[in-house]
Design goal:
Radius of gyration: 20 Å
Helix content: 25-40%
Number of domains: 3
CATH architecture of the largest domain: 2-Layer Sandwich
Strand content: 15-25%
Shape: globular
Distance between the termini: 15 Å
Oligomer: single chain
Order of helices and strands: EHEHHEHHHEHEEHEEEEHEHEEHH
CATH superfamily of the largest domain: ATP-grasp fold, B domain
Number of strands: 13
Number of helices: 12
Structural class: alpha+beta
């Protein structure tokens, strides 16, 4: 099968996506597929022979990409590429139509908010992951929280604020709280605010990525994630950063976080969290796979933070570790998603 692994894009999470995409592409080549790792934003210029772009395992030319410590400078990327604000690079649509299937390894922005999925539906392009409705509902943290509350799924209290209108916001908010861009992932733009003095800086940091932000009640507890694969909950994984919280650096730099899978929890609590994860997956109309994040308080109550429709597949990512805990190798996981 000819497979395009679509990654990168003009997103704050492009580095994570390229790391995920490289590993996915290599795994699919090992499974016998012909694979092209394609950057959604940069595309490929002046190409006439599409076949020559696809790599096979016998070519002995694997893809490689390591996530840098710093978040990407998108302004520099736009200037260097000459693509400007156009979110889809040259020949991307043509190549995706040519391939048998597109494996979406994108994170954030157009790749995860439903826009790309809707466009692919119009072109008849077959792709992995969720459709445009589930992608939209899960990516917009405000919408997903409304739906979770309607279905009696506990989630931290919150408000959605437009930073272009709320000029006196930092004077009226209660702390402690967590501030997040409304539609970003990978902990990009996220701050934990523990004092009034930290509030202004946290709002400015979030505004670098998006004008609309989620201001969320700070829940203190253990952090867990639950992968969903083909409507089955995988074992819980506990996330224990060595310093600070589970931010961009702690997520993607090796050795910064301890991850325990299966998580050391009473079976009754584990099952309840898995059931809640499945419910979130279903009410948000997510597709073949996802990852749902939770916080567990000392009193046994737990709160859903969000669902991820295109979970990370980097060397440090959570979903592959959860799959491995039940005997599914990384390459097997990629092929399950490909045909899911």
């Amino acid at each position: 099968m000819k497979v395009i692994v679509l990654a990168g894009g003009l997103s704050p999470e492009r580095e994570v996506s390229l790391s995920s995409g490289s590993k996915i592409a290599n795994a699919l080549m090992e499974k016998g597929h012909e694979v092209l790792l394609l950057d959604l934003y940069l595309g490929i210029k002046e190409v006439t022979d599409f076949d020559s772009l696809f790599r096979k395992v016998e070519d002995q030319n694997p893809y490689q990409y390591q996530v840098p410590k710093e978040e990407p400078n998108l302004a520099e990327l736009k200037e260097a590429s000459g693509n400007g604000a156009c979110l889809i690079g040259e020949n991307v649509v043509s190549l995706c139509k040519y391939a048998d299937k597109v494996f979406l390894a994108l994170h954030g922005s157009i790749g995860e908010n439903g826009q790309l999925q809707a466009m692919f539906d119009n072109y008849g392009i077959s792709y992995t992951g969720s459709g445009y409705i589930g992608s939209l509902l899960a990516m917009d943290k405000g919408l997903s929280k409304i739906i979770m509350k309607e279905h009696e799924i506990k989630t931290p209290a919150y408000i959605v604020a437009d930073l272009t209108k709320e000029h006196q916001l930092e004077k009226t908010l209660m702390v402690p709280c967590v501030i997040k861009p409304l539609s970003c992932g990978s902990s990009v733009g996220v701050s934990i605010v523990r004092s009034q003095e930290e509030l202004g800086k946290a709002l400015e940091y979030a505004k670098r990525y998006e004008n609309k932000v989620l201001i969320e009640e700070l829940i203190v507890g253990r952090e867990f994630s639950v992968g969903i694969l083909n409507h089955q909950a995988l074992p819980l994984i506990e996330i224990i950063p060595k310093m600070g919280f589970y931010d961009y650096t702690n997520k993607y730099q090796s050795g910064m976080t301890v991850e325990v899978c299966p998580a050391q929890l009473e079976e009754e609590i584990s099952v309840k969290i898995q059931e809640a994860a499945l419910k979130v997956h279903e009410v948000l109309q997510v597709g073949f796979y996802s990852r749902v994040d939770f916080l567990l308080k000392d009193d046994g109550s737990f709160y859903c933070l969000e669902a991820n429709t295109l979970p990370g597949m980097t060397p440090t990512s959570l979903l592959p570790q959860e799959a491995e805990a039940i005997g599914i190798s990384y390459s097997e996981l990629c092929e399950l998603i490909l045909f899911g």
